[in-house]
Design goal:
330 residues; 13 helices; globular
Length: 330
């Protein structure tokens, strides 16, 4: 009875009510998938989200169905081309594995999320996250060690790089690595055994030429880790930040798990979404050049906080200049 219930609730009168119909469809599908239970058939009594893949496999095996995929709507690439679905080889990370998920839930329970909304979002994601396609065949990225025809996609690749912050100042003086750091350790010195020792505490091969320097890196890592807080945007709760917890629990001991995550909303500019393509954008440098650092800070403070989207208004930034001047004169 979900359809008539939602039509009544959302006041849908005809097929012309497109916005409400889209909302009703999403609500019905979501509720059925996450809360529904199979009432008939071979998988009676199982949760819909568990039975779905079993039903699919059964239909394909019996020859009554074939695998098929298409985008939910029109998808345009950054180059302006219409995207299509291609069936390609793919590697997956199994985030649904029960013992790993249990560890990650333990990590979340110990973390400070600075709000119940953030915690609820993480819990919901952990409950349904399963396989995640973690590679792509082109673009920038790290090569997959066991299959170098692929690179690791960015959301899977960039999950524990904050551990690198603890030693980066000792490895290089410049961001591009062109100037070696104070320990004299080169990129060639940092082989797999070196990284295993510095970040995971595994034994170094006997007679390693940089044993003393690597011991200093290990000391710096242990001094700074774990990270006390990770700040990021609300849209990354659904992927990157959840992977960040998973991969910390997979690689590091419990005492080195992250301690808190603070989530923020997006920043609007004059009540509209920031977009370079529409010209509605303002960089931090541009704001400081235009209004000064102090007025920019005050305008950001007024803009808003928490998971709600903040709104930076240029007239307010401009007015803060006069207010600061008046305060100084007073």
């Amino acid at each position: 009875m979900s359809a008539p219930t939602l039509c009544e609730k959302l006041k849908i009168n005809s097929q012309k009510d497109r916005v409400q119909l889209a909302e009703a469809k999403e609500a019905a599908y979501k509720e059925g998938f996450y809360s529904g239970t199979m009432s008939i058939g071979d998988f009676k009594g199982l949760a819909v989200q568990v039975a779905k893949q079993m039903v699919r496999a059964q239909l394909i095996e019996s020859g009554d169905a074939v695998g098929y995929a298409e985008p939910e709507g029109l998808v345009m690439s950054r180059s302006g081309d219409e995207c299509v679905v291609a069936k390609c080889d793919q590697w997956y990370i199994d985030y649904g594995e029960e013992s790993w998920k249990a560890l990650t839930k333990k990590c979340l329970a110990q973390m400070n999320t600075y709000g119940d909304d953030t915690r609820a979002q993480f819990e919901a994601k952990l409950d349904w996250l399963n396989e995640w396609a973690c590679v792509r065949s082109f673009g920038l990225g790290s090569k997959v060690p066991w299959d170098e025809s692929f690179v690791i996609e960015s959301l899977s690749d960039s999950t524990i790089y904050m551990s690198y912050y603890t030693i980066s100042h000792l490895l290089h003086r410049s961001l591009d690595g062109s100037e070696i750091g104070p320990l004299g350790v080169t990129a060639d010195d940092m082989d797999y055994s070196a990284w295993d020792y510095v970040l995971l505490g595994k034994d170094l091969p006997s007679g390693h030429s940089k044993a003393a320097e690597l011991a200093e890196l290990r000391r710096s890592y242990l001094y700074w880790y774990p990270l006390d807080n990770r700040s990021s945007a609300k849209d990354l709760v659904q992927n990157h930040l959840t992977f960040f917890m998973y991969n910390h629990t997979a690689l590091f001991p419990e005492r080195e798990w992250p301690r808190s995550v603070r989530i923020n909303g997006h920043l609007l500019l004059n009540s509209e979404k920031m977009s370079k393509s529409t010209g509605n954008s303002l960089s931090l440098r541009e704001a400081c050049d235009r209004y000064g650092a102090d007025a920019t800070r005050l305008a950001l403070a007024v803009a808003g906080d928490s998971m709600e989207d903040a709104n930076f208004e240029e007239p307010i930034a401009n007015a803060e200049i006069l207010r600061l001047h008046t305060l100084k004169e007073w």
